[in-house]
Amino acid sequence: MTEISADDHEELQEPPEQPPPPRVRTAHFKTDQRVRAEKVVLPADADMGTLIHDLSHEVLAAVAADARLSEDLALALLNRRDLSREVLEALSRNGQVARQRKVRMAIVMHPQTPRHVSVPAIRHIHTFELMQVALLPAVPPDVRRAAEDALISRMANISSGERFNLARRSSGRVAASLLLDKEERIMQAALANPQMTEMWITKALKAGTGTDRLAPAVSRHQKWSFRNDVKAALLGNRHTPPARLIHLAAELPVNLIKDVLRNGGLGQQARNSLLAVLEKRRTGGKT
């Protein structure tokens, strides 16, 4: 029989067991003897800065809900585009950190945030942050629309300076709500907004009231007065100056002028002016 030497005996012995590192534990919650949900429990000495990069959605949800999560770590977590709805919901309910301005903004702008979380949060966002939400293509369309609605609803209660800045820099839909503003400079800023389109201007010109400043400004505008749809809307607006009315009509096709006459709503003087333009073009051999 082969004898085992003392040295061999030491080599065969297992090394002393090392204490395990702190581990994330999983707790099961039961109702009527069936597993209803699984929740990760973070240890007291959990490294939150490391855990925000974990691949497990359960671990991330626990991190998002943890009171130890700082604003900086929450923002770093929100930079991840692979977060689940559950993680974002947990973060939105995390008391103090979720109320931080930057965190709330990042939650609203995250593409995976459930609408029942992002849309109500919009009410608590500052005016110019809302403007950013409404302009960013990465934000889901319905969230951008909700941001625009919130901005438009605030117009009556914000200062002239804020309205002026919104007219210059906001989305086309928000700027369009300022085309009928009582201040000339705000209306002019809305006309110059890079997001403005002739659809919004045409719609504003067809409004029942409040176009007494808009129509004359648009009729002389170096950009919008050359668009046929805008010209047609100006012909049908009673605040368009008569001299500009005749000039614009002379540049439009006959069928568009006839459409304006058929639609009605013109004052007698404007109607007579358009009829005179048509007669002049007919007798002059123009079509």
Topology at a glance:
Layout: H1 6-12, E1 25-31, E2 34-41, H2 48-51, H3 57-65, H4 71-78, H5 85-92, H6 95-98, H7 101-109, H8 115-121, H9 127-135, H10 141-154, H11 160-169, H12 172-176, H13 184-191, H14 198-205, H15 214-219, H16 228-235, H17 242-251, H18 254-263, H19 268-283
Antiparallel strand pairs: 1-2
Q: Would you give an account of this structure?
A:
With 287 residues, this protein is mainly alpha-helical. It has 3 domains: 29-125; 126-196, no CATH class; 202-282, no CATH class. The protein contains 19 helices and 2 strands. A two-stranded antiparallel ribbon has the order 1-2. Helix 3 (57-65) runs parallel beside helix 5, helix 7 crosses helix 8 and helix 9 (127-135) packs antiparallel against helix 10. The longest helix is centred in the C-terminal third of the chain and has 16 residues, at 268-283. The termini are far apart.
